[in-house]
């Protein structure tokens, strides 16, 4: 079974980086390009459910996505220091530029010093602007313009476009070697995440009535079967269980089952094999029995038991947004802004344009978000509203987050 990597970067780099990724057996690349690096977080949000990992063509779009808290999958970026920077220095020398007097953005100062030392070049007259949170292309352009006669080395296509008409500027392009190194790191992280999520989770459930039990099993992505002594067996994997329990902290199904059962005891076991998971589930159920009539316990290896709290149905603003975010492929901050938008209008529907304005995104991005929420039962279409122009009508949605 292959793995899909989302490659995010400017138009002229995405195809080349994606092609290098697809040299790896079993890897396919989803090409996602942008006009400006600031668009990276919205791209990641819109396509989160389509990939198993993210590879950014540079550190800037990666950091923008990370700082926006939209990375719900393993992610890596292509490093432009080392071989990429060395090849740029050779090219600049061929173009007749003084490579001891440069203005370089984005790369860490220590990496630049190391690369120059390996090439036997001095660094006393090298100006550097390392990437920091909040750094923008405008700030980078201003930094380079203050460099006097220094040639410019930039990692940003937007900076290259702004400066190429007024000074000598070279944009770094990732080497094939750098792409392969970043891809190896990403595949290791994605494989580790996949193996962890695929761990077997077995639940032994004691209830008086089976009402609602099948629905709870389905919500966990699992199957339900009768077990010995009237106990029910729920089979799922670590990933869905972690999502549903908010990272193994609470078990909302406990309170739902308790609404029509006096006794609800659940023991989950998480193991690398079915036999290990069943043994741990038995231990968890035994501890749940000692706790009381309504209790849930998760048993892990190394004699670790976690008592899962019973959580009553939360109000709209108190839902476990981490679980919802992973399910619909949106970030928690985006869901919080949507909840605020719904609270502001009460039960009234909102148009796609109004949602886009409240989130600060383009309408097509808002439409994709609302479509995901609709598929998950968290938004419903209520009709269309003329946009007042010759454009497409505005779809109206009632948010049910």
From TrEMBL:
InterPro entries in alphabetical order: WH-like_DNA-bd_sf (IPR036388), WH_DNA-bd_sf (IPR036390)
Source organism: Streptosporangium minutum
Indicate what this protein is called per its UniProt record. Answer: Uncharacterized protein
């Amino acid at each position: 079974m292959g793995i899909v990597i989302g490659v995010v970067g400017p138009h002229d780099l995405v195809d080349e980086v994606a092609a290098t990724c697809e040299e790896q057996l079993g890897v396919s690349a989803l090409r996602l390009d942008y006009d400006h690096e600031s668009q990276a977080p919205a791209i990641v949000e819109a396509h989160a459910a389509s990939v198993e990992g993210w590879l950014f063509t540079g550190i800037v779009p990666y950091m923008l996505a990370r700082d926006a808290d939209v990375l719900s999958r393993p992610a890596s970026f292509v490093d432009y220091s080392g071989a990429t920077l060395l090849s740029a220095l050779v090219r600049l020398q061929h173009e007749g530029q003084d490579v001891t007097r440069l203005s370089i953005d984005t790369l860490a100062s220590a990496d630049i010093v190391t690369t120059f030392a390996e090439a036997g070049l001095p660094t006393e007259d090298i100006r550097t602007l390392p990437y920091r949170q909040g750094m923008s292309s405008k700030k980078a352009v201003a930094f380079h313009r203050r460099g006097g006669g220094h040639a410019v080395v930039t990692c940003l296509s937007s900076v290259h476009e702004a400066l190429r008409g007024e000074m000598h500027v070279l944009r770094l392009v990732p080497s094939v070697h750098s792409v392969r190194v970043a891809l190896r790191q990403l595949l290791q992280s994605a494989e580790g995440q996949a193996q962890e999520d695929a761990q077997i989770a077995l639940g032994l459930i004691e209830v008086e009535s089976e009402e609602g039990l099948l629905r709870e099993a389905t919500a966990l992505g699992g199957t339900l079967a009768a077990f010995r002594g009237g106990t029910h067996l729920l089979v799922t994997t670590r990933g869905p269980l972690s999502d549903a329990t908010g990272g193994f902290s609470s078990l909302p199904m406990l309170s739902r089952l308790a609404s029509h059962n006096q006794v609800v005891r659940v023991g989950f076991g998480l193991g690398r094999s079915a036999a290990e998971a069943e043994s741990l589930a038995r231990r968890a159920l035994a501890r749940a029995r000692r706790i009381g009539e309504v209790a849930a316990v998760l048993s892990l290896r190394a004699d670790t038991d976690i008592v899962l709290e019973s959580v009553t149905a939360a109000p709209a603003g108190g839902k476990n947004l981490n679980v919802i975010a992973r399910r619909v492929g949106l970030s928690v901050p985006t869901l919080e802004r949507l909840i605020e938008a719904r609270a502001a209008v009460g039960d009234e529907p909102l148009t796609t344009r109004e949602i886009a304005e409240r989130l600060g995104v383009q309408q097509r991005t808002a439409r994709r978000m609302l479509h995901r929420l609709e598929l998950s039962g968290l938004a419903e279409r209520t009709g269309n509203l003329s946009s007042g122009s010759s454009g497409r009508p505005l779809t109206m949605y009632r948010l049910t987050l």
